[in-house]
């Protein structure tokens, strides 16, 4: 089990929250002078600021709110270098703030104390400090500060295993951020929630939150947060098995310039290591984890370091280095009261599996059962799946097959769950690729607009130079302007063409998606029934369950099912060819309408006779139409077939035709059940998603009539329907008259 690092932006949040206005002029004068004199001697701006503040603190003798703020800012200066010093100054500031009843100073110092205990895995005291700070900010209605503290509180709840409270705090934070348009903190909360769902292998939810976070950070143009989010997205792709995409997002995220925040760098290294492990690229994984450990050691953060060590131990275990994995997890579990619950759970799982492997089966089972309970509480599907498998193997070693079977069933259930989810992940991946592709397209268009704006700006500069330079320069610039105008027009035309092509592609993709849905609806519902009936009947015959005499009685029904299936497949294939080609192509020729109808009716007589339906062909023998012969037969066959389906037993179907000017009107009437107006409106569309049944239980989903509509249009004709409920239906097909 790998440990994700969604975001722990505690330090940067607190630091930003401590930018409080100072009213003490002495504070600012001494601070400015000390900063000026410290410039030649200090290597970094952070060191200069910290040393300057220490100088001011020695000079400031009054115990007032300014001193509280000085102590808070000095604590902030030590946050990445010395936790002991940070907590020392924060505690001094807190005690003075209590005496002065300076609420804002109390909250600021409380947060730094929370940082110190959080980094040392002292979750109880860290939570106490943060909740006290949150209470102050709620009382002063400081919503921005509330959001930052809520993130830290939610993070602690997540680390101690109470994910319900964690998500509740994240949601509260997100809602407050949206009321004050705080995109930065909202994005961080969204990434954190996405990390929880990624831990639970709920990739659809994880993707949703990561995309929303990415949108927020893109609006802010925050390169650091965009980088962090992209590496988190890489872990989702690697979890779904799309390693190529995962590698792309790792490379893009780590290549973004301007990333200096230690926490963002730590997050990127840990999550890239997670992705590399899932790709089984353990060399790059160890490199990434070692870089993350270097950052954790530099600031003395035990929590971050333990997170890295847990991932390294997991990588050792997966590469077969049980000794190294056992050594690391054993040391981490000695800090049981301080370690994250996810580290404890995975450590117990791994140690238990190793003990079982080494013959200490009962000891291993105890640890594995503890790990399973923790994984079930946190809903870690992958961990439950792996631990149940290990428990089943352990009980099998003890010849306790009852327990072995019990855990094997649990393992199999989660295997099936994860397998089914992979299908959803692939679907989600397609949607996610489309969304990101759309976003990239929009960015490209915006960049082109920016280039046009830059071109206009350059043109204006040239005009100004022309006015100053005189008549000669004016002539030269006019020529340049003319050339630029032509270039701009060509660019605009090119952009418009590209935009039109993108829109056409999007429309085509939408049509193909509807076609896919329709095709799979037919395959999963209408084809499965007839095929199942025929298969079951043949199997019973083969197994001597049915006698030949009994099969003879069922034979008419089997024939009916096969004919229905044949018609459905034919329509489906015609429909698929039409959509794959992107259009319906007709090869018109002179066709005798009577003969075409007669040939088609002969094919349907058997079906009609089973229901006692008479088909009357009253088409004159001298009428010819200009139409594709094959498509004409499909048109007549599907309309007549539809009439047979919806006409009760002993009904009647009548075909008539008349030539009017340059066209022929073919009418096909039945004495069937008829239709309501709303049913007629849906006949020739692909929106219908449900199966309809004829008077004798015949199935259909409207593909035949939709195909008729397409073929009539392809032959320069038209089709209309008149019907009355309970009295029958008439289809009127108008086609060009033959010569």
Explain what this protein looks like in three dimensions.
By secondary structure, the protein is of the alpha+beta class. The protein is 74% helix and 7% strand. The chain has 28 helices and nine strands. It has helices at 10-17, 25-38, 45-59, 65-77, 83-100, 103-119, 123-139, 143-159, 163-180, 183-199, 203-220, 223-240, 243-255, 262-278, 282-299, 302-318, 322-333, 341-357, 361-378, 381-397, 401-469, 471-526, 528-542, 548-581, 593-610, 629-645, 677-681, 703-714, and strands spanning 589-592, 614-617, 624-627, 652-660, 663-670, 692-693, 699-700, 718-724, 728-736. A five-stranded mixed beta sheet has the order 2-4-5-9-8, with helices on one face. A two-stranded antiparallel ribbon has the order 1-3. It has a two-stranded antiparallel ribbon with strand order 6-7. A hairpin with a 2-residue loop joins strand 4 and strand 5 (663-670). Helix 8 runs parallel beside helix 10, helix 11 (203-220) packs antiparallel against helix 12 (223-240) and helix 18 (341-357) packs antiparallel against helix 19. The chain starts with 9 loop residues before the first helix and ends with a strand. The relative contact order is 0.04.
């Amino acid at each position: 089990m790998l440990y994700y690092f969604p975001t722990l932006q505690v330090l940067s949040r607190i630091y930003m929250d401590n930018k409080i206005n100072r009213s003490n002029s002495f504070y600012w004068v001494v601070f400015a002078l000390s900063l000026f004199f410290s410039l030649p001697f200090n290597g970094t701006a952070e060191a200069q600021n910290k040393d300057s503040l220490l100088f001011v603190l020695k000079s400031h003798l009054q115990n007032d709110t300014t001193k509280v703020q000085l102590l808070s800012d000095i604590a902030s200066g030590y946050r990445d270098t010395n936790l002991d010093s940070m907590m020392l100054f924060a505690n001094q500031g807190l005690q003075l703030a209590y005496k002065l009843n300076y609420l804002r100073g109390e909250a600021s110092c409380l947060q730094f104390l929370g940082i110190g205990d959080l980094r040392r895995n002292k979750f109880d005291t860290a939570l106490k400090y943060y909740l006290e700070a949150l209470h102050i900010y709620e009382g002063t209605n400081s919503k921005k500060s509330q959001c930052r503290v809520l993130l830290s509180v939610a993070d602690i709840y997540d680390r101690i295993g109470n994910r319900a409270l964690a998500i509740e705090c994240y949601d509260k934070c997100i809602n407050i951020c949206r009321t004050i348009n705080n995109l930065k903190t909202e994005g961080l909360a969204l990434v954190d929630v996405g990390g929880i769902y990624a831990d639970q292998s709920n990739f659809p939810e994880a993707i949703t939150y990561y995309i929303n976070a990415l949108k927020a950070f893109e609006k802010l143009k925050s390169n650091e947060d965009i980088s962090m989010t992209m590496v988190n997205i890489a872990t989702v792709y690697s979890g779904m098995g799309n390693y190529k995409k995962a590698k792309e997002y790792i490379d893009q995220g780590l290549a973004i310039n301007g990333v200096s925040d230690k926490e963002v760098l730590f997050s990127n290294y840990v999550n890239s290591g997670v992705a590399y492990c899932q790709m089984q690229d353990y060399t790059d994984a160890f490199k990434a984890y070692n870089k993350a450990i270097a950052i954790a050691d530099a600031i003395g953060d035990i929590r971050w370091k333990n997170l890295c060590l847990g991932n390294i131990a997991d990588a050792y275990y997966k590469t077969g280095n049980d000794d190294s994995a056992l050594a690391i997890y054993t040391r981490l579990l000695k800090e049981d009261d301080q370690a994250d619950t996810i580290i404890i759970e995975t450590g117990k799982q791994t140690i238990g599996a190793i003990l079982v492997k080494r013959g200490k089966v009962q000891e291993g089972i105890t640890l594995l059962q503890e790990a399973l309970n923790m994984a079930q509480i946190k809903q870690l599907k992958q961990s439950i799946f792996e631990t149940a498998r290990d428990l089943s193997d352990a009980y099998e070693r003890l010849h306790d097959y009852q327990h072995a079977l019990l855990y094997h069933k649990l393992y199999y259930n989660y295997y099936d769950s994860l397998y089914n989810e992979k299908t959803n992940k692939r679907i989600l991946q397609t949607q996610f690729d489309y969304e990101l592709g759309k976003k990239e397209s929009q960015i490209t268009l915006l960049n082109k607009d920016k280039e046009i704006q830059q071109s206009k700006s350059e043109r204006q500069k040239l005009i100004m130079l022309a006015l100053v330079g005189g008549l000669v320069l004016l002539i030269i610039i006019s020529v340049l302007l003319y050339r630029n105008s032509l270039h701009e027009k060509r660019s605009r035309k090119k952009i418009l063409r590209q935009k039109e092509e993108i829109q056409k592609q999007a429309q085509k993709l939408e049509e193909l998606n509807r076609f896919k849905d329709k095709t799979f609806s037919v395959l999963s519902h209408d084809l499965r029934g007839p095929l199942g009936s025929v298969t079951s009947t043949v199997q019973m015959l083969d197994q001597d369950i049915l006698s030949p005499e009994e099969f003879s009685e069922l034979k008419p029904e089997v024939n009916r099912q096969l004919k229905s299936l044949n018609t459905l497949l034919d329509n489906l294939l015609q429909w698929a060819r039409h959509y794959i080609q992107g259009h319906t192509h007709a090869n018109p020729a002179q066709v005798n309408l009577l003969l075409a109808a007669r040939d088609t009716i002969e094919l349907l007589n058997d079906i009609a006779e089973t229901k006692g339906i008479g088909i009357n062909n009253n088409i004159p023998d001298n009428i010819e139409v200009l139409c594709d012969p094959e498509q004409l037969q499909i048109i007549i066959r599907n309309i007549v077939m539809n009439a047979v389906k919806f006409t009760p037993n002993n009904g009647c179907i009548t075909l008539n035709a008349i030539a009017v000017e340059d066209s022929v009107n073919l009418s096909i009437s039945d004495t069937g059940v008829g239709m309501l107006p709303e049913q007629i409106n849906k006949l020739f569309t692909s929106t219908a998603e449900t199966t309809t049944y004829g008077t004798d239980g015949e199935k259909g989903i409207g593909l035949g009539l939709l195909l008729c509509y397409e073929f009539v249009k392809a032959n320069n004709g038209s089709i209309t329907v008149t019907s009355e409920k309970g009295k029958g239906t008439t289809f009127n097909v108008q086609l060009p008259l033959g010569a």
